Amino acid sequence: MITHEVLNQAPPREGVDEFAADVPLVEAVARWGTTAFSVGGGTEADAAPPALHDLGRLVGTADFQRDAELANANPPRLVTHDRWGNRIDEVEYDESYHRIMAAAIAAGAHTSAWADPRPGANADRAAAFLLLAQVEPGHACPVSMTHAAVATLEHAADGLQAEWMPRLLSRAYEPGLGGDAAGTAPAPKSSALVGMAMTEKQGGSDVRANTTRAVRRPGGGIRSEWGAEYGLTGHKWFCSAPMSDAFLVLAQAPGGLSCFFVPRVLPDGSRNVFRIQRLKDKLGNRSNASSEIELDDTTAWLVGDEGRGVATIVQMVTRTRLDCVIGTAAGMRQAVAEAAWHVRHRRAFGALLVDQPAMAAVVADLALESEAATLTSLRLARAYDVDATESEQAFRRLATAVAKFWICKRGPDHAAEALECLGGNGYTEAFPLARRYREQPLLAIWEGSGNVIALDVLRVLGREPEAFMAFFDDVGEAAGEHPAFDLALAEARSVVGELGGADAATAASRARELTERLALVLQASLLLRHSPGPVADAFVRSRLEGDGGSMYGAFPPGVDVAAILARA
Q1: What is the pLDDT of residues 493-503, one digit of tens each?
Q2: What secondary structure does DSSP assign to 46-73, as a single string?
Q3: How far apart are CA 532 and CA 463, in angstroms?
C-alpha cells in the first residue's frame, strides 16, 4: 500500500550548462581568457570559447554526475601480482573513473595551455579544470600534475623532452601502463600522464630530510639522449595517481638533493622497479589512488642539475598549488550551486527557503566567498600565460602562495555551511555535498599545508622583495574605491614593513596574520575592480571592516542580498 507521496523535494539538478550557470566564471573567462585577446575581443556577456559551454553541459548531465558518484563509491584497488605470481604493481579503477579522465584529457584540462601557449590560455584551461573538478575532484590530481610537470620537464635533456612532451600534450587517454617483465611490449603509448613523488616518512614537507639515494650509472645508459642515468633506492610516503606513466622524484645524489624522471615502463618495454606497497585509506578523494612506494635501483634520469632538485621541481609545485586554489574554488561553486538549487525549490513554514531572510543571507554569503575564490583563481591563471611580464611573474610568485593559504583554508567551513542548507539530505551520501565536505580539507594540506605556505610567504619577503612591490602595485589599482579597503591595504603594507625588519621567530609567529591580510586585500581588490557594486561592498564590509558576525549569513545591515543571490 502506498502510504505517502514524495512532495516538496528539490528536483534533480541535471541538464545544466554548469559554465553558463556560473556568472562570475563566465565574466572571468571573458576578461582573462583567450577571447579577450582575440581579434575584435568580446564582451563579458558572451565571450567564451564554445568548448567551455560544451564542457559545462557535459559535467551537468546526469550520466557525468552518476560517474562521479560511482568513481568514489568504488575506490581504486591495488593489484600487486598477476595470477601467475609476477609483480605488476597496478591499480584498478572503476570504469566511471576512466570515463571522467577521458573527458578531462579530451577537454585539455591537463596541458592545453602548453599545447597552444597564447594570452588567456591558462585562464581557459583553469575554467575547464574548475568545471570538471566541481563535479568530480579526485581525477583532478593526475590532471593537475601532468599540467604542472611540463614546467619542470623543460629542464630535462633534449632527447627526453622530444620523446615525452608530445605525449603529455596529447588529448588521448590510455589508462593502461603497457610494458611487461619480458620487455616484449608493443610501441610506447601516444599519450602520458606524469605525477610526482617527493615526501618520505621521516620528513614530510621537509624534503631535504629525504633519504632516497641516487647513484650515477657508468657509461651512456640505456637511453643516452635522455641525459644522465641513475639508480634510485628508497621510498616515498605519498605517491598519488601511481598509474601515471612517469614521475618526477626527489632523491639524494652525490651533489645533493636532485630531481629525477622515473618512467614506469622503460624504453625496451620492460617495467621499471616501482613497488606499490599499499594504497592510502583517505578521508576523502576516494576516486584517486594515493600510495606508498618502494624504489630498488629504479632507473631514472636527472632533470636539471645535481643538488638543484627543489629549485627544479618547484616549477611543478607552484602550478599544482595554483590548481589547489582552483580546485577549492570548484568545490565552493559546487556547494553554492547545490545549496542555491535546494533553497529555490524547497518550501518550509509557508514560503520558499530562498525567500526567507535568514536562509537567503547564508546562501548569498556562500556565493560571495565563491565569487572571490573564482576571480582570484582566474586572475592568477592569467599571470602564468606566455606573455607574462617580469612584474606579472613576480606577482604570481607571491599571490599564488597567498591564495593557496587562504582560499584552501576557507574550503572546509564553506562546504559544511552549504551542506547544512540541505538539512538532513546534505549529510547523506545520496547527495554530493557529503563527498565535497570530505574533499575540501585535502587541498589545504597537499602541496604545502598552512604553516608551510605562510612561511613561504615570509621567504619571498626576505628573498624577493620585488614580488611584494608587484603585488601591491596590482592590488593598489583598487585604491580609492572603498575607505575600508584603503585602510586594510595600508595595514597590510605596515605589517609587511614590520616583519621585514623583525627577527626570524617574531616573523614566523605572525606569518599567518601577514598571509591572511594579503589574501583579503587581494580578493577585495579584484571584487572592487571587476564585480558589481553590491558584491564588492558586501565583501569589504563583512571581511575587511568586520561588520556583522563571523558566521556565514551574519551580514552587516544594508547588504544587497538579492543582488548577490542573483549571481549564485
Answers
A1: 999 999 999 99
A2: T---HHHHHHHHHHTSHHHHHHHHHHHH
A3: 37
**Structural domain total, the chain:** 2
Q: Is the pLDDT of residue 39 over 70?
A: no
Which of 246-250, 265-269, 292-296, 531-535 bottoms out in mean pLDDT, i.e. has the lowest?
Answer: 265-269
Per the structure, the complete domain to which residue 211 belongs is given by 191-308
Last residue of a domain, one of 269, 291, 308: 308
Question: Can you say how many angstroms the Cα of residue 248 is from the centroid of all Cα atoms in its chain?
Answer: 18
The 10s digit of each residue's pLDDT in 530-557 is 999 999 999 999 999 988 899 999 999 9
Question: 308, 330, 362 — which closes off a domain?
Answer: 308
Tally the residues of the chain: 568
Task: Give the C-alpha distances (Å, rounded to integers) separating 317 from 103, 355, 447.
Answer: 24, 44, 7
For residue 190, give the DSSP letter: S
Specify if 389 maps to a domain.
no
- The verdict on residue 410 lying in a domain is no
Give the Å distances, CA to CA, from 452 to 129, 139, 467, 495: 25, 25, 18, 19
91 to each of 29, 174, 244, 266, how far by Cα in Å?
36, 14, 10, 19
What's the pTM? Answer: 0.97
